[in-house]
Design the sequence.
């Protein structure tokens, strides 16, 4: 693979080279030579220092008071190292193993890494760090396997001007919160224009720089393929949402479709179901913010038959399984509505699944009634 001197310097970080490289230096280098050769780093000695030169556009590194032959071998090793890393990425991608990709990439970034799905649930994180060794967000992730609502709210509100939630190119953000106080590289992972996750790299053991941005974008190419293909192979959630949408909009659903949906979504007569309808309270809602909130709702409530979007309203099923679970879900739903400025309407308990559209209408009417009364959430009886 092609490198620039930022990437070389990151690999040889322990040698503490002096870095004089443009931030936008192109990644065009394919090797190192002791004479000038196009697209190769030129390694030479000047007094007691060894220079690694990539020309005017590529900049140079200085290894002070070091042996010429040792530096040359180390720089040549760098190209072999990244070539080997790419081979490992390809092997992991063939096995659809995103955890292996994160494991194999720590030696490239030498900083804490975490992979999240589109709903900010933890998929993988660097095993080199203890729960309490990075920051509060890392600790919460390690223990709860998802991002906290406080962090998500902060990033949605404060990251919007910087396109945080929809950036498909790596960027380094300086975040000042009690949970993440420092720099973090972050990039959204898209596959065929659909977001499937996010890669975060926290600055801890080595300063993040433009070389990390290039390598993260390269890494995301492999992760996007895995996450996208995995999702396409598992159409269960899509089929949930498709049948749920038909039921809400009074479209015809075959008996076979309905029975399959009930079976796969765990629909049971003894459970109580309600239709929830959410709408953003703001008059003009940023598209990226809306999509981020949809992903969060899908993450927390989308396991009971699907999440669907009808015009500007989001709908899903809420299941009453026990008094404690009901209380927990209502608390979470209220928390969502307050943090993300949502209006929420909830139907009466569903008595007839074939008339689910009637309960959707109840949820919409409850939501509209709540607006007129200035209330955030309205729940029906039953």
Sequence:
């Amino acid at each position: 693979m092609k490198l620039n001197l930022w990437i070389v310097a990151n690999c040889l970080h322990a040698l503490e080279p002096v870095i004089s490289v443009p931030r936008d230096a192109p990644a065009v280098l394919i090797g190192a030579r002791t004479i000038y050769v196009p697209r190769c780093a030129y390694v030479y000695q000047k007094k007691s220092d060894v220079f690694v030169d990539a020309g005017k556009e590529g900049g140079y590194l200085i290894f002070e008071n070091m042996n010429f032959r040792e530096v040359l071998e180390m720089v040549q090793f760098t190209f072999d190292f990244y070539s080997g890393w790419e081979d490992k990425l390809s092997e992991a991608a063939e096995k659809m193993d995103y955890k292996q990709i994160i494991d194999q990439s720590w030696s490239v970034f030498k900083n804490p890494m975490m992979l999240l799905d589109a709903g900010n649930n933890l998929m993988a994180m660097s095993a080199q760090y203890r729960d309490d060794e990075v920051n509060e967000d890392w600790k919460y992730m390690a223990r709860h396997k998802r991002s906290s609502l406080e962090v998500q709210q902060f990033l949605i509100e404060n990251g919007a001007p910087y396109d945080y939630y929809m950036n498909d190119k790596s960027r380094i953000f300086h975040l000042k919160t009690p949970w993440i106080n420092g720099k973090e590289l972050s990039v959204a992972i898209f596959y065929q224009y659909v977001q499937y996750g996010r890669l975060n790299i926290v600055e801890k053991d080595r300063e993040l720089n433009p070389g990390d941005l290039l390598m993260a974008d390269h890494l995301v190419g492999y992760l996007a393929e895995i996450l996208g293909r995995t999702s396409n192979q598992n159409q269960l959630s899509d089929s949930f949402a498709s049948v749920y949408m038909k039921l809400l909009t009074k479209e015809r659903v075959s008996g076979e479709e309905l029975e399959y949906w009930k079976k796969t979504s765990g629909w049971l007569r003894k459970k109580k179901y309600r239709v929830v309808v959410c709408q953003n309270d703001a008059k003009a809602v940023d598209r990226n913010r809306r999509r981020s909130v949809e992903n969060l709702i899908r993450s927390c409530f989308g396991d009971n038959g699907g999440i669907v979007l009808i015009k500007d309203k989001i709908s899903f099923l809420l299941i009453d399984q026990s008094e404690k679970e009901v209380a927990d879900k209502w608390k979470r739903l209220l928390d969502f509505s307050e943090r993300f400025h949502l209006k929420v309407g909830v139907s009466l308990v569903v008595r007839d699944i074939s008339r689910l559209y009637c309960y959707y209408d109840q949820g919409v009417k409850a939501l509209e009634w709540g607006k007129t009364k200035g209330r955030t959430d309205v729940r029906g009886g039953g």
